[in-house]
């Protein structure tokens, strides 16, 4: 006589399902955290290479950073391509914008395209065959911004994209020995962009919210990767980078002031 094999009861089945659900709830955040940690490590590596590219450029430019047109930092990295020959390292691992966050900001900001033509009188690079909106064959996709504190404003007689009158302006890069710098290991040269939802065009509605969300505070667990002027890269939480919760408070405590004589040393 055959004996019937006993199957799962409904209660046993429900217990198994509950255990699987509990394990999934525990493990999924762990997997997500590990994935973000890997992407953060990739961003640190990329940003370190970006800083080294800028430093290599300086060795052939009287120890000065490249001339630029604020805030079009994609021009800087285009000028530095001869020293790095790598377009991919300017991308943040978690960035959703294939064209680059800096390009997205200037070309798709909701109020017109402000991308500089590479042959513009204030730029002077090779012509682009790709053209608008991003001139992507000349400008590498860029998810980083440079520290504007490391550049001095000068006037030139070029016909800049933002200066149709012919009295264009550029920013001359400083050196590591600039008199305002007290510690190049603290000075930020490159940083992931954006670090927060309120950065230009700014606000919790319109283009800014559509681009990176009304609560965005960095690509990696509410923080961003930074490349320092001495060549090392590091991750910082949002509260460290922008302790007053705004892009610039005037108190000289934000990341743009670190390592400068006029910066508040208590937050560096």
List SSEs in N-to-C order: HHHHEEEEHEEH
Number of helices: 6
Give the % helix. Answer: 25-40%
Structural class from helices and strands?
Answer: alpha+beta
Largest sheet: 4 strands, antiparallel
Number of strands: 6
Q: What's the average pLDDT?
A: 85
Radius of gyration: 23 Å
Rounded to the nearest angstrom, the distance between the terminal CA atoms is 82 Å
Seen as an oligomer or otherwise, the chain set is: single chain
Q: What is the overall silhouette? A: globular
Strand order of the largest sheet: 1-4-5-6
Strand composition percent: 5-15%
Low-confidence sequence ranges: none
* Tally of distinct domains: 1
What's the SSE blueprint?
Blueprint: H1 10-59, H2 74-79, H3 81-84, H4 101-107, E1 144-146, E2 151-155, E3 169-173, E4 188-192, H5 207-212, E5 223-228, E6 233-237, H6 238-241
Antiparallel strand pairs: 1-4, 2-3, 4-5, 5-6
Task: Describe this protein's structure.
The protein is of the alpha+beta class. It has one domain (about 15-265). The protein has helices at about 10-60, 75-80, 80-85, 100-105, 205-210, 240; strands at about 145, 150-155, 170-175, 190, 225-230, 235. It has a 4-stranded antiparallel beta sheet. A two-stranded antiparallel sheet has the order 2-3. The radius of gyration is 23 Å and the shape is globular. The relative contact order is 0.14.
């Amino acid at each position: 006589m055959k004996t019937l094999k006993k199957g799962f009861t409904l209660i046993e089945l429900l217990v198994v399902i509950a255990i699987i659900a509990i394990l999934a709830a525990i493990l999924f955040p762990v997997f997500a955290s590990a994935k973000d940690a890997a992407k953060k490590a990739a961003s640190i590596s990329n940003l370190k290479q970006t800083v080294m590219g800028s430093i290599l450029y300086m060795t052939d430019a009287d120890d000065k950073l490249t001339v630029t047109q604020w805030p079009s930092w994609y021009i800087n990295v285009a000028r530095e391509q001869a020293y790095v020959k790598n377009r991919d390292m300017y991308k943040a691992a978690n960035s959703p914008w294939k064209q680059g966050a800096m390009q997205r900001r200037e070309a798709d900001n909701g109020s017109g395209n402000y991308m500089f033509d590479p042959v513009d009188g204030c730029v002077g690079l090779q012509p682009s065959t790709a053209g608008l909106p991003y001139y992507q064959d000349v400008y590498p996709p860029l998810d980083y911004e440079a520290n504007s504190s490391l550049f001095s404003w000068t006037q030139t007689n070029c016909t800049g994209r933002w200066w149709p009158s012919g009295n264009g302006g550029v920013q001359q890069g400083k050196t590591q020995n600039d008199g305002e710098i007290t510690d190049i290991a603290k000075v930020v040269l490159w940083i992931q962009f954006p670090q927060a939802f309120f950065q230009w065009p700014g606000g919790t509605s319109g283009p800014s919210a559509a681009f990176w969300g009304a609560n965005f505070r960095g690509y990696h667990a509410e923080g961003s990767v930074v490349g320092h002027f001495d060549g090392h890269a590091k991750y910082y939480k949002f509260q460290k980078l922008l302790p007053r919760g705004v892009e610039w408070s005037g108190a000289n405590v934000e990341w743009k002031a670190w390592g400068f004589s006029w910066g508040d040393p208590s937050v560096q």
